[in-house]
Write a structure and sequence with these properties.
The protein is 70% helix and 0% strand. The protein has 152 residues and is mainly alpha-helical.
Length: 152
């Protein structure tokens, strides 16, 4: 059974129509149910992106630190890309920083499992607690020092 809601029939047209109705202040014509749902989903998407990027960053930091003989410019590039994307997310939405601190430990656990799989090292080869402080992984000076093999 097809829905009569524009939202279900043509999402892009629904977005354009909703934006126009908001600009024109025609609030009585808005599809509030779907608009609220979409706004909530945007926040969830940003948190999910932050978590996923944090895991990827930690995977590469672990690989970089625990497999020095396999270090590559690709790993360094991935570390910087994830750092920059996390930095951008936190600049755009500073309210995500407490969430970042809250999820860091869980991200580290996931990163250990993934790094173990990728490196063929035992999970036990990695510390059970992160060797990186959450604040360090979002500090460009720390990242720079780490990938340039300076004392961190």
């Amino acid at each position: 059974m097809k829905s009569n809601h524009l939202y279900d029939r043509d999402y892009c047209l629904w977005l354009e129509t909703t934006a126009k109705l908001l600009r024109d202040r025609k609030l009585d014509l808005l599809d509030f149910e779907h608009l609220i749902e979409e706004i909530e989903d945007i926040g969830k998407d940003k948190r999910r992106e932050l978590k996923n990027r944090s895991i990827v960053l930690l995977i590469h930091l672990l690989k970089y630190q625990y497999q020095p003989e396999r270090r590559s410019s690709s790993w360094v590039s991935t570390i910087w890309e994830q750092y920059y994307q996390i930095e951008s997310l936190l600049e755009d939405s500073p309210s995500l920083k407490p969430y970042y601190l809250e999820i860091f430990s869980d991200c580290y656990s996931k990163a250990v499992r993934a790094a173990s799989t990728e490196t063929k090292l035992s999970v036990k080869a990695f510390p059970s607690e992160s060797p990186f402080f959450p604040e360090n992984t979002i500090d460009p000076d720390f990242i720079f020092a780490l990938v340039n093999q300076e004392e961190v």
